[in-house]
Amino acid sequence: MRRLINFGILAAALSLSIGQAQASTLRIALNEDPDALDPAIGVSFAGRDVFASMCDKLVDIDAKLNYLPQLATEWSWSADNLTLTMKLRPNVVFQDGEPFDAEAVKYNIERYQTAPFSKRKTELKQVKSVEVIDPLTVAFHLSEPSAPLVGVLSDRAGMMVAPKAAAAAGEKFSANPVCSGPYKFKSRVAQEKITLEKFDRYWNKDAIHIDEIEFYPVPDTSVRLANLQSGGFDIIERVAPTDMAAISANKSLKLVVSPATLYYQLSINIGTPAAAEPLKNPKVREALEAAIDRKVLNQVVFNGEYVPNNQPLLPGSTYYDPDFPVPPRDLAKAKRLLKEAGVEHVAFTMTVANNPIELQAAQVIQSMIAEAGFDMKIQAVEANTLIAATQKGDYQAVYTFWSGRPDPDGNITIWQQCDGALNWSRYCNPATDAALAKARQVTDPAERLKFYKEAASHYLADRAYMVLYHIKWIYGTTAKLEGFTPALDGLIRPQGMSLKP
Fold first, then answer.
1. Ramachandran region of residue 144, left (φ > 0), alpha (ψ -120 to 50) or beta?
2. Is 116 a residue whose pLDDT tops 90?
3. Rounded to whole angstroms, how far apart are CA atoms 314 and 221?
4. Rounded CA gap, 232 and 214, in Å?
5. Phi-psi region at 170: left, alpha or beta (left = phi > 0; alpha = psi -120 to 50)
6. What is the pTM of this model?
7. Ordered structural domains, the chain, with CATH
8. Model confidence over 11-64: pLDDT tens digits?
9. In 10 A of CB 33, how many CB atoms?
10. Using CA atoms, how far apart are residues 141 and 261, in angstroms rounded to an integer?
């Protein structure tokens, strides 16, 4: 049984212990406890934050979502877009001393494709084979063109783990993960703390100036803020917009704000026995959306700081479609649609992560839709419990988020495609799949946009997933922290960061 944390005791303990802490330890408060620390299994955003310090990828991204070399130094496509060839960084070793080379890349990709526990299979399904050209050159041969592949390799599917350690541990690899990043795994106490220590043989060790990183899962925003103010934490992520003024007014702290690819959405279960029967009716889901006012939700819960949206792509970005604007609330329409569907009163349960901000948002939605005839109960659970339930289809509706990816395919396909890795709703529309498949096969942005518009015309009308808003990344840090640069993906990258005495 997992140990439960008394957050009041945690707050006091952190405040008392700060005087004993070394300046070279960076304490980061996360919004929830990460799930499995294995890139093949993990699906949580908090886990990606830990991976950013522990597991280098073939490709990284910069603050504007441009691709950057990491373990791959360069890459190129064949004329028919069926082969992606990568040159690898020399003199890289994993944290157990095993060398990183093309054979290691081949092992990792095949592990992601074939391991029974892997959740990366859909992301890599176009990769037909991986060829070792020489120790520092590897080629990905595809069954069909896949423009998003570089983006896929900039996330978990591109994270390289030590082959010998992974082969020996199998599904238990997450208990003692071994990667090639700047920090190696030291210890974990579930729902309390993850500790990483600096890897002295890291290929880019000159960019690493902090000896140890500690991650604390603290869902309560007030506890995170109190410990930042007292010196117990050095960084808190996903700060509540209502706490921004308190951080700005404190000279010992810094407020850091950035646009974000992360969006929140409602996932409606339409394909398992646990689903609420009325929600399987498209008219009922249309009525549900008509009863929600995204702008009011933003004002009431988020102080007007977030970006109301109905698409999984950030407004103003290359593939955002202005032809599908945010629909206004229309209570009369909602009531009419329910009447037409023959269910003037719809009862269902929405599952939500047990933290104050998400609960408040759920309560506002509950109040809005009640006026149209929806009786929505709120079930608050721990974040990893929520993920486990949704993956099994054991829910009716869930309020959840996706942290976003640099390629549009990574923000849409994973949810909306019939075999999408996170298609919790069990949504399946062949017309949506066909449009998404066409978009993957071309690289010209204008041509791709045409197919993404076609896909949007289907999945926005089907409403198995209803995007509500994009957040902004809001961090609070100690003023002693230097070199922290936010990115659109929200990950805390340790390169270049240092703590002043």
1. beta
2. yes
3. 25
4. 11
5. left
6. 0.85
7. 23-55+166-259+480-499 (3.40.190.10), 59-163 (3.90.76.10), 261-472 (3.10.105.10)
8. 444 444 444 445 599 999 999 999 999 999 999 999 999 999 999 999 999 888
9. 24
10. 30
